[in-house]
Amino acid sequence: MVYETLPRTVRILLLGEPGVGKTSLILSLVTEEFTEHVPPKAEEITIPADVTPEQVPTNIVDICVAEQTVEQVAEEIERAHVICIIFSVDRQDTLNKIASYWLPLVRENCSDDFRKPVILVGNKIDLIDYSVIDNIWDIAEEYPEVDRCIECSAKSLVNVSEMFYNAQKAVLHPINPIYCIEEQELTEKCKRALTRIFKICDLDGDGLLDDYEVTMFQRKCFDSPLQLQVLDEVKSVIAQNIAGGIENDCITIKGFIFLHCLFIQRGRNETTWTVLRKFGYDESLELTHNYLYACIKVPIGCTSELSYKGQQFLTQLFEKYDKDKDGMLNPTELKNVFSCCNRIPWHNLRYTVPTNDKGFLTLQGWMCRWTLMTLLDLQNTSAYLAYLGFNFLENESQKAAIHITREKKVDIAKKQSSRNVYQCHIIGPRSCGKTSICRSFLGIAHKKIKPHANERGDSNTLENCCINTVLVYGQEKYLVLKEIPITRVSDPLQPHEVNCDVACLVYDVAASRSFEYIARIYIKYFAESHIPVLIVGTKGDALIARQEYILQPEVFCNKYQLLPPQFFNIRENKHDVFVKLATMAAFPHLKHFASLTGESSSWWKAGIGVAAATVVGLVLLKIFSFQKR
């Protein structure tokens, strides 16, 4: 899968003094023979894509100084993609005019940010028996936009097609973004791009490319295998030319960068550009928008989750960078994971996902964080999957890593949810214990955590979200708790604050006016909705105060056919409330659990349904795997 940003056509402009052979070169290319009598100027010629090596249509434009004004020439310079300045090798004055007139004219009509590539062409080499290339290099050093210098002959047809091919290459595979001619080395942006590519192809993360990894790189970039003998020759060239380029018979990052530098120095820009474009880079060595952001539409009522292929890729990525094999990513290892990206996307993880006591990311926490980002910020997930090489390693777009769930109304109709990720909104008055519930979900309710100096919140932390896994009848589900901030009791809830898979209405059992708020919230926003609701009383170790409301919590729940209030005490660290919330989200048709005949019987029947679905899923997975093999 290549994300190219090549021009749809290449426009080549020929400049130079009268009589240097501009028109003859064009006619010799087209007719493949030399014409003694040529017109002052050739008409614009279009070469079809199927007869050009790069399969891109090419327009060739001739200039006649005697017939065209300076303004018309300037206009053609602006329209051109590449400019060939022709001089006659037997006339020193035509060579002198390149630096004194033609190159300054080209610069005047190009922006400072983008200088068009220039090819210097010495025509009529059939008239001399020596090379003039050495006389041109001084000009090339003064003008970095000079891509290359070529000697040719329109009369004897020497290097005529090569001249136009190189002009085309200068546009399609430009040298300036990737190579600094003055310093004779790759540009810093090119080095950074190749370093990212190296890290992606380093499958085991040992800092070396072994034979298997090089062969895979070759096959995926160029659609052809690399013969073992050729690979040995490549490694021999690296070893002979740069110290530290080969280690343990493997290619190091130093050797990898040198190899591409060598390609460019030998005029094989297209090799490096093929690699760069395969990994999503444009002519400015930036990752293209299409490469980073896959077109994934999430219909209303549906949500986005990681697919099995996405989970598998991220699990392998975690294992690759877990250098000490302790099942966690410490800050250094996490930084190394995202060294291929423009920045680390997450901070302050201990308040968002499960971590160890030091705040290091476990595999469970790693998958939770990706799951949360996929749910809330799918575009960001798409971009970071691209940065990390999913497109290249899986040879598919990020769409393959994402699963779009069916509409929620279908889940309700079928009386079972097929989702693996559920959103629970924690709603209640201030200081009722919402934050304690969220922290208890992550197992850090009692812990006094000193934040690291470099810790700061990310977008999802600021949205008061946390995520963990919950077992629902033996199936692992992800439950996202989102704390809805309440400034004033009188403030109305916004639609995005109400819409969720299950709502947890929280009140403080010790505060006599606490239940009234959530009772009114339920009646106003949830009584007529399809969203399951669980009422939770916090601070269960305190004395239970009588609520100053027309109905006490137990009576209220009975009236509206809800489960009885669940009491939550952070000191007990029980997770039964979270299991109930996840189960209610998984079976949205059972909104009024208490209205069913026998509460435990209904939950048992739901569990049987989940178990049956699991068995069917495993059978289908085995059948699919067998057919794939």
Protein model, in words:
This protein has 629 residues and is an alpha/beta fold. Helix content is 41%, strand content 14%. The protein starts with 9 loop residues before the first strand and ends with a helix. It has a 6-stranded mixed beta sheet with strand order 2-3-1-4-5-6, sandwiched between helices. Strands 16-17-15-18-19-20 form a 6-stranded mixed beta sheet, sandwiched between helices. Strands 7-8 form a two-stranded antiparallel ribbon. A hairpin with a 4-residue loop joins strand 7 (179-180) and strand 8 (185-186). It has 4 domains: 10-172, Rossmann fold, CATH 3.40.50; 185-289, Recoverin, domain 1; 304-405, Recoverin, domain 1; 418-597, Rossmann fold (3-Layer(aba) Sandwich).
Helix percent band:
40-55%
Terminal Cα span? 24 Å
Number of domains: 4
Structure classification = alpha/beta
Q: CATH architecture of the largest domain, please?
A: 3-Layer(aba) Sandwich
Major sheet details = 6 strands, mixed
